[in-house]
């Protein structure tokens, strides 16, 4: 099992018990060193105090478990609007948002999520001033983001 999967399985329930949803975990090398980032969500928003609460909890538990050898920095953050939507929870949470759906073919379209099932996602899109539904197999999707409109 890889590190991210292990961390998610180890801490997801604990973070939920603290009152947050664990959205994503990222572990990467930066010019400052290795960075372990936990992205959390709460429908009321995330404050610096929320990040500190989760960080203090994780810091102690990560030291006890000693899953990561060597030095790294721990960061707890809220999710960024530009972050790809990866889970069904992400999609449901953004049900009313305009989404940009990029396909593995390189094509993309803008639409609103209508329904999701195990194999497909159905989007409501506007083409030629008409609304239509587009069904896409999950395996054909490269990335889904919120389309930020100004």
Describe this structure in words.
By secondary structure, this protein is an alpha+beta fold. It has three helices and eight strands; from the N terminus they run αββαβαβββββ. Helix 2 links the parallel strand 2 and strand 3.
Task: Write a brief structural summary.
The chain is α+β, with helices and mostly antiparallel strands and 150 residues long.
The gross shape turns out to be: elongated
The amount of helix comes to 25-40%
Strand content: 35-45%
Average per-residue pLDDT, rounded, comes to 92
Name its key features.
alpha+beta; 41% strand; five-stranded antiparallel beta sheet; 150 residues; 3 helices; 26% helix; three-stranded mixed beta sheet
Layout of helices and strands:
Elements: H1 3-17, E1 21-30, E2 33-41, H2 48-65, E3 73-78, H3 88-93, E4 99-103, E5 108-116, E6 120-127, E7 130-137, E8 141-146
Parallel strand pairs: 2-3
Antiparallel strand pairs: 1-2, 4-5, 4-8, 5-6, 6-7
